User: What shape does this take?
Amino acid sequence: MTNRMKHGARPTALAATVAAGLLTALATASPATAAESTAPECVQYHQSWRYTDVHNGCAETVAVTVAYTNGQWAPCRVVAPGQWATFAGYGTDGNYVTGLRTCDPAATSGI
Assistant: This one.
């Protein structure tokens, strides 16, 4: 009987350890998401089915990404004053842009 109790405790301990690791990973990812905010109004976008062009009309450099209706990933791009950056367009399935978000280029990666 004692052997069964010891054996039964191992899977429970393993499950607890795995759950704690997952929660830690989620908590670590949250600050990068929380750091994003709506891009300044001086940053404008023009979308077509093929491309979304973003223009920085601000006096300072900005780092922005595009938010799409289907939540697809978009890179974080650093755009100097007066410059343009190109992102994916809405495509034939109508994946429209919902807005521009600020981002941290050091925290993003190509998925």
Remarks:
- The longest strand covers residues 62-68.
- The radius of gyration is 21 Å.
- Residues 1-35 form one domain.
- The beta strands are 43-47, 51-56, 62-68, 77-79, 84-88, 97-102.
